[in-house]
What we know:
The chain is mainly alpha-helical. The chain is built from 13 helices and 2 strands; from the N terminus they run ααααααααββααααα. The radius of gyration is 23 Å and the shape is elongated.
Amino acid sequence: MNAPNLAELATSSQSEVARQMSICNACRYCEGLCAVFPAMELRRVFSGGDTDYLANLCHNCGACYYDCQYAPPHDFKVDVPNAMARLREETYERYAWPAFARPLFQRNGLWVALALAVSVALFLIGFVVASDPASLFAAGTEPGAFYRIMPHNAMVALFGSVFLFGLFAIFMSLRSFWMASATGPVTLRGLWEATRAAATMRYLDGGGMGCMNESEKPTDRRRLWHHFTFYGFLLCFASTSTGTLFHYGLDWQAPYPWWTPVKVFGVLGGIGIVVGPIGLMMSRKQRDPELRESTTGLGAAFLWMLLLLGVTGLILTGLRHTSAMGLLLAIHLGVVFAFFATMPYGKFMHGFYRFLALVKYAHETGLSHGAEKSGDAAAQRG
Ligand code: SF4
Ligand code: SF4
């Protein structure tokens, strides 16, 4: 058994993952369960970057915990899902950009997000009351009705800036993660394999049996809720992008009739980001306490904000022909703003880090297959 490379391990969570991976590397019983174990087998020692990479490759299916003969109460105390989950949570904070925002979001993520949403909604309501109070309670579905609450250009300036800031912060965080955890180029093959694995949540299936949640009996429910959330979010994004095309390409202003792609994508996406987060929160509640991830403000904020985004969007769609439209739009826009502002500091990032880990995994396992063919597998290790 090789000793962990403790000199490069900065935190106790990294040291614990390295300790457990060294035991697993000698055992290798779980190598068929997911991508973590084959990636681990390519290493003899584990640096901090390696442990962060492996932690984000783990999908927390729980299979290796139930399969492990060294799990507590054994003296080795091998509990890979928990060790990985703790470290994963730590990586969201470690790589967040800018650095000064990290402590702010660590413990108060949900309250910060809610306070932002309420402030922006109140600002919009105050703005309308000050300029044209009657329009706050005026019903209307004609094109341009939404812009009585906030002029289109002001909306683009406010939401566009926070969205672009969010994208830049995400890019900077991913850059740090990639530089610390990954080596080698981003290849087309790596991107393709990672996209396939992410789109199907391939490694959430416990090696084919399903994910362990309430007990040792595997099910596929967590994968289903992840799919609702992920594809729901993509559909909402498609709805917003199509709306932008309609506005600038066709000179057609919101709100749009129910049969347009903007509405169809938006309603289906809204249902996805309501059903998915509720399913994930319920699964978490029912989960075997041994496998339950500790959720800081960061983790909790993401699912709640996604759920609020879906609920406020669907209510707005259903009641936009009534006099409540102005108020509902202000509330929905407040939630959208808070979601954009907090997305680089919450669990939203786990999808991106996991995707980069999958890109690296596809790249290095592709390399290792080639090296093994040429009898030089050792060149890929250490
Ligand atoms: S989790 Fe346990 S059984 Fe699986 S490889 Fe590690 S030590 Fe072996
Ligand atoms: S994905 Fe599942 S089997 Fe693999 S390390 Fe994580 S919990 Fe264990």
